[in-house]
Amino acid sequence: MKHIFIINPAAGNGRAEKTYLPLIHAALKGGAFEYEIHRTLSKEETAEYVRRCASEGEPARFYACGGDGTLHDVLTGMMGFDNAEIALIPGGTGNDFARNFANGSLLKNVKALMEADTVPCDVIKYDGGYCINMVNIGVDCDVAAEAARMKKRGFGGAMAYIAAAARILPKAKYYRMSYELDGEKREEELMLCAVANGRFCGGGFKSAPHATVHDGLMDVGIVRPVRGAKMFKLLVKYRGGTHLADKDAVGLVDYIKCASFTLEPLCEVDVCVDGEVSAFKGATFTVIPDAVRVAVPEGCTLL
Q1: 20 to 30 Å CA-CA from 111: which of 5, 121, 150, 261?
Q2: What pTM does this model have?
Q3: Phi, psi angles (nearest 5°) of residue 211
C-alpha cells in the first residue's frame, strides 16, 4: 500500500506542518514504505491531487494532516475509488471529526495510523459535493465564518468559536427556509439547521448527540428563533449535547434521523460544510452508507 500524506501548511495557523512533518519522517525512517508527502496549495488542488493519485489504481491510504477542511478536500478527491482509504491526523482549529473517536489522541500517532485497520464510514452527498462530518446552515454557519476571522486575529482552538459565538449570537439573524421533514413540508424562519454525520461542530459543540458515522443515517437538527437569556441557556445545553432533553427546547428544536433531507433557502444564506463556508442555494442531502474506509489505530474507536 502507498502512504500519501496531505499536509495543509495553513492548518492550525501553521502549527500542523511544524508539529507533524517531523513525526511523519520519523515514522517512515527505516521502513520499506512507498509514500509521498504533499503540501496543499488550495482546496481545489488538494482534491485534484488526491483524485489523480487514487486513479492510478494501486491501494493507497491518504493522510489528511490538518483540520476538518483538509479532511473534506481529501474526501472529495477520493470518492468513488475503492482502492483509497482515508486517515486523519488532526492539526486544525476545530478538529470536530476527530471528536467522534474515543481516545482520539491516538490519531496523532503517525506510526499507529500507518499500521491501523480501517472501519467503514458513511458520507453525506448533496448537490454541491460530499460531507464527512456536518453541514451547518444559518447561525451555526455565521459563527463558523466569524471564527475563521478570529483565527486570523490570533484566537486558537475552541476559543475562536467561543469568541465568534459571543460576537454573533446577540444579533443573530433568522433565515426563512422551505424544507421537508419526516414527510411533512414546512416553510418557516429558522435560527439554524444542522445535517450531521458526526456529532460535533464549531470546535466541540455537540449539536448532533445521537449521530453515528456508520449507521446509514444522518441526523437533522433544526432550531427555531430564540433570543435573550433563553437563547444563551439553550446554547449551553447545545454545546454539551443535552439540548434535546431540555424542557425549554420543546417547540424550539426538532431532531430526526433520516436517509434523505431537502432544504431550500428563501433568502440569502451561507452553508458550512466540514468547516468550509460558501453560498447556499439549496440541496437534497442523502446518505451513502459505508462510502469510505477510515483508518482507526488500535485502542481508538468510533463513538
Answers
A1: 121
A2: 0.94
A3: -70, 145
